[in-house]
Structures are given as structure tokens and as C-alpha cells.
Amino acid sequence: MQTTNETIQPITADFLPLEGTDYVEFYVGNAKQAAHYYMSAFGFQALAYAGPETGMKDRASYAVRQHKLTFVLTTPLRTGNPVADHIYKHGDGVKALSLRVPDATLAWEETTKRGARSYMEPVRLNDGDGELVMSGIHTYGDTVHLFIERKNYKGIFMPGYRAWSNPHFKPTDTGLLYVDHCVGNVNWNQMNPWVKFYEEVMGFKNILSFDDEDISTEYSALMSKVMSSGNGFVKFPINEPAEGKKKSQVEEYLDFYNGEGCQHVALATNDIVKTVTELQSRGVEFLKVPTTYYDDLLDRVGHIDEDLAPLRELGILVDRDNEGYLLQLFSKPVEDRPTLFFEIIQRKGAKSFGKGNFKALFEAIEREQEARGNL
Ligand code: FE2
Predict the structure, then answer these.
(1) Residuewise pLDDT in 10s, the chain (375 residues)
(2) Predicted TM-score (pTM) above 0.85
């Protein structure tokens, strides 16, 4: 397999036009505290709440927002329901990568007729602010894609939710703007079937491939393919483990998540130095690369606008594709299991990814993996 890096070509008849990520929903053990963490540490604002008070008897959900980025934290109120079962099996993690579409009924029809397994038939939700249509399909593991059509809805989030705010707690934002991409970890030999799923069922293109020689460290390896929607608004890289001397970090994820799932969500900023400085001061922990990473950085990536000193200080990585460069940094897992983490990314022209950072990232994860005794 060869590394390829093709320019994203608009496809002519997009049967699944996507307007971007609508929201990411996390199933967590304690949504009240998780919402507080994303507000205090990541700079989100309270937006909307649903629970017994709004007619939802088995769960509570908190929606928080920062610019175009919306997270929903959902927790079960009792055992014996799908939210509780999800947490019992996986711990905290991403349940839904929800996508904004012009027509959620059509999105469901077009994807299910191409082989997607239905998660939710189109439903029309109404309240005094209009009508929101949603539907959904399964993807890897227990993760789902929800299709959200909100062109006839003017409410604060969606029917079933009420406005939620706390006048005494409004942490400043950290400059996080929107979801850049979401990465899935899948089982051995399952990367290509999921690539095929995104191609055939959702009309995505494979824009970049990394084989196990591109992404191998001294001990472990993995493979990755980047899938992109026709307009490039939605990108879903897919990783699978590869054979190495020791256990792949994708395998460690699969062990602790108890199956396939979302490995990381990448959040875009226009000023990564400012954003990461702010996140770090609020307690978000990041992976560190050895300072030698910066010794020959400019030889590898060419001219960059930023000063090197703050990048080195914060451990921010720089890489290049054939259209420009990008700056990125990865958090440590945001729960005790070595599963979900976040990436902070600033794009300066680059629309895909470079392979140098993959290696630096996976070496950094491997050092943490070794410290956990799972290598
Ligand atoms: Fe990423």
C-alpha cells in the first residue's frame, strides 16, 4: 500500500449533502459534572437541558456550545436502558456524530438503501419553535450518525430541551470553533470494510492513506485511511491496529472501550497558541513530544508564520500537506480508561494531514501506554 495524498474532488451528484457536524453526543456516567468540565476547562457555555422536568424520564442531557461547536452530555437515570448499557460496556464515550443535512428523511432513505443499518427512522419533532426532523444510521461499534434537519426550527437546540444557563457561571471561551474531524478505531482487518461503508453508503472519498510503515514506532503499528465528504466539510479517518513487536495502541483502545468507537474528536481554532495556553491553564492535559522534535522542524515543514518558541513550550506539532500546513496537539484521554481524547487543530492552508505528526503522536501515546503497563 502506498501513501497517497489527493486533492479533494467535488463529486457531481452528492446523494448525501452534508452541511457539517451538528453536534457530538457523549454518553457519560455523570452528565452534570461532565457538562461542568467542558464549560470550565474547555470554555463551552450552557445552552439547553432535557430530563425528567422536560418529559425525558430515563436520562438527562446537557447541551453546551462554543461558536459552532455543540456537545451533548447524556447520562442514564436508571439501569436497564440503552444509555446505561452503553456506559456499562464502554465507559464514557462518543455515541452520536450528528450531521446537519438539508433533508433528514432523504438522508436516511439514501443511506439505508445503500446498506446502512437503521438506528432511527425519520421522526418529526415539534414544539412552539417549529419542526426539527432527525433520523439515524449505525456506524462502527455502537456509534451512530444522526441526520439533523433544522431548516424549519428556530428554537435554542431541539424540541424536548429547554433553555439552560447559569447567570453566576459563564466561563470565557477558549477559541474552539467547530469539529474538524472525528477518528474511529476499528478492529483488525476492519479498516477497509469501513472505508467501503463510507464510500458506498455515504458517498465519501478516501483522500489519504497511511500504511503500517508510515505509522509505526519501535514497538507497535497501525494503519489509517482518511474519509471525506464530497464538500470536505466532514472528515472521518479510520484506524485499525497493525502487527508490531508489542501491542498496538489501537488494540489498547479496543480492549478498554470494549469494541470499536471514536478515538478522538478534533476541534478547530484560529489561534492554537492562545487556545492551548488557555486550555492548559484550566487543567486540560496534553501529550508531550520530545524537544528534539523541534530541532529540524523548519527543515521538514518549511516556513511557518508562527514563532517556534511558544510551539516548543506548549508541545504543538506542525505538519504539511501539498496545500499548506497545520498545527495540532493532542490531549491525554479525558476519562480514566485510555479511550477518547481531543485534538486541537489550526489549519493554515492544509486540508488533509501530514504523516510526520502521526508518527510523533503515536510515539507520544506509546510512552503513556507503556506507563499504564499496556504496551
Ligand atoms: Fe486527528
Answers:
(1) 344 444 444 445 689 999 999 999 999 999 999 999 999 999 999 999 999 999 999 999 999 999 999 999 999 999 999 999 999 999 999 999 999 999 999 999 999 999 999 999 999 999 999 999 999 999 999 999 999 999 999 999 999 999 999 999 999 999 999 999 999 999 999 999 999 999 999 999 999 898 877 777 777 778 899 999 988 899 999 999 988 878 888 999 999 999 999 999 999 999 999 999 999 999 999 998 888 888 888 888 999 999 999 999 999 999 998 899 999 999 999 999 999 999 999 999 998 887 777 777 777 788 888 888 888
(2) yes
Measured in angstroms, how far is the CA atom of residue 50 from the centroid of ligand 1? 31
CA of 137 to the centre of ligand 1 (A): 23
Q: Is 85 in contact with 258 (CB distance < 8 Å)?
A: no
Region of residue 189 (left: phi > 0; alpha: psi -120 to 50; beta: else) = left
Q: Are 151 and 131 in contact (CB under 8 A)?
A: no
User: b/e for 277-304, b at 16 or more Cβ within 10 A?
Assistant: bbbbeeebebbebeeebbeebeeebeee
Partners of residue 137 on adjacent β-strands: 118, 145
Name the one residue in this structure whose C-alpha cell is 481524547. Answer: 341
- Classify residue 125 as left (phi > 0), alpha (psi -120 to 50) or beta: beta
52 CA → ligand 1 middle, Å? 36
The superfamily CATH assigns to domain 20-163 is 2,3-Dihydroxybiphenyl 1,2-Dioxygenase, domain 1 (3.10.180.10)
Q: In the CATH scheme, what is the homologous superfamily, with its name and number, of domain 176-372? A: 2,3-Dihydroxybiphenyl 1,2-Dioxygenase, domain 1 (3.10.180.10)
Q: How far is the CA of 355 from the centre of ligand 1 (A)?
A: 11
Query: Residues spanned by CATH 3.10.180.10 within the chain?
Result: 20-163, 176-372
Separation of CA 53 and ligand 1 centre (Å): 38
Residue spans of alpha helices (H) in 77-209: 82-90, 104-113, 191-200
Backbone angles phi and psi of 263, in degrees to 5 = -85, -45
